[in-house]
Amino acid sequence: MTRFIYKICPTDIWQEAESAGSFTGSGIDIIDGYIHFSTAAQTAETLALHFTKQDGLTLVEIDTKSLNITWEESRGGQLFPHLYEALPLSAVRQSWQLTLDGAGIHQLPDLS
Q1: 24, 86 Cβ separation under 8 angstroms
Q2: What does the alpha-carbon distance between residue 54 and residue 97 come to, in Å, rounded to a whole number?
Q3: Residue 39 in contact with residue 2, Cβ under 8 Å?
Q4: Helix, strand, coil share of the chain (percent; to 5)
Q5: pLDDT 10s digits, 1-10
């Protein structure tokens, strides 16, 4: 499937993960028992549905090459990447602080 996937996370929680050396999830991840990710094509919709007008978010790009990603059907029958274990930071390629425009829409970097 897709090699690079994305995690949207409150910046303070992501900073804690960086200090700890791995990411075990936040909010809904902990409740559901796995870490939720999106593909590049799904990221904008995920932001709009679950993070509307929230400031203080980090977008993290993950290389799935060494991870045991499970692809499961979710929103509208789309397959979404899930990880049923802690995310090692060695799989992180890069991250961005997300900003909001004047209408409260998150400004995404080019994920192509």
Answers
A1: yes
A2: 12
A3: yes
A4: 30, 40, 30
A5: 689 999 999 9
